[in-house]
Design the sequence.
């Protein structure tokens, strides 16, 4: 709803921060797709008027994507989850203050159910299921979702023929 601007703004910032964390984590293997993904996406920032070029060179740590970029992205990948945690807490604070919006438009107190134990148990089961799936993928098939070109070491002189975003960025 338009009444919950702060909640929406924090939610959008949270989404962008999670996407940034996924992106800098994608660069860390330092394969062909990682290198060229970093080159393409960071070059998009150069379109920002006045500060774009300076911002890109600051992120790169030089005049091109190099080992300094990898070091910076590793630092960003370490720091951003702490920022995400703080943003989640602020988002929950705003949700606690304003309450969630009901899509049906009905808001009688008689139709509400308590958060605990109903949603707590449901969310805990969903969390455990997702954790089990993630651990199964990570332990038994860690390369299943990866791009085969990313197994080649980063080489700025060899551009892959089919650069495409990862599956989790396809909606953007």
Sequence:
């Amino acid at each position: 709803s338009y009444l919950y601007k702060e909640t929406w703004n924090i939610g959008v910032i949270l989404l962008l921060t999670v996407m940034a964390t996924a992106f800098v984590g994608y660069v860390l293997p330092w394969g062909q797709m990682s290198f060229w993904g970093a080159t393409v996406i960071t070059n998009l920032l150069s379109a920002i008027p006045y500060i774009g070029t300076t911002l890109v060179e600051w992120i790169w740590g030089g005049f091109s994507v190099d080992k300094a970029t990898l070091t910076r992205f590793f630092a960003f990948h370490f720091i951003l989850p702490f920022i995400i945690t703080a943003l989640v807490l602020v988002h929950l604070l705003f949700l606690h203050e304003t309450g969630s919006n009901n899509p049906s438009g009905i808001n009688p107190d008689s139709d509400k159910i308590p958060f605990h134990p109903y949603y707590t148990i449901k969310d805990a089961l969903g969390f455990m299921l997702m954790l089990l799936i993630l651990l199964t993928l990570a332990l038994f098939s860690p390369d299943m979702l990866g791009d085969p070109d990313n197994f080649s070491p980063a080489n700025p002189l060899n551009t892959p023929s089919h650069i495409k975003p990862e599956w989790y960025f396809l909606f953007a």
